[in-house]
Amino acid sequence: MAKSKTKTKTRHPSTESKKTERVYWLDHKRNVDKIFYGLVAVCIALFSADFFYHKHVNFPFENWPGFFAWYGFTCCVALVLLAKQMRKIVMRREDYYD
Q1: 54 lies in which domain range?
Q2: Does the residue 12 lie in any domain?
């Protein structure tokens, strides 16, 4: 086989990674802020909508405005805290399966 006469330039790894690094839309703080404030607006709209419709409840506390929002948030926080405690029980050494 004949050797190729074209030379390939070797680039420094740090300059090459800068040129080939792709920028995604969530890398910009402006876009992250749009999502955050959009979610806040949706939460406020849903919470305020709770005042304008009739609920068929089984228990009196379900009729409190925003009850299910607070209930869901509290349960989510409780799950995270419970998982952090369970990690202490379930966690194994890094080389456990070796």
Answers
A1: 23-90
A2: no
Task: Output the tens digit of pLDDT for each of the chain's 98 residues.
Answer: 555 555 555 555 555 555 678 899 889 999 999 999 999 999 899 888 888 888 888 999 888 888 888 899 999 999 999 999 999 999 888 888 87
**1 within some domain:** no
Helix (H, G, I), strand (E, B) or coil at 23: coil
pTM above 0.90, yes or no: no
Work out how many domains the chain is built from and give that number.
1
Question: Which residues, at least 6 apart from 66, have a Cβ–Cβ distance to it below 8 Å?
Answer: 47, 50
Q: Residue 4 is encoded by which pair of tokens?
A: 């190729």
What does the DSSP 8-state code read for residue 94? T
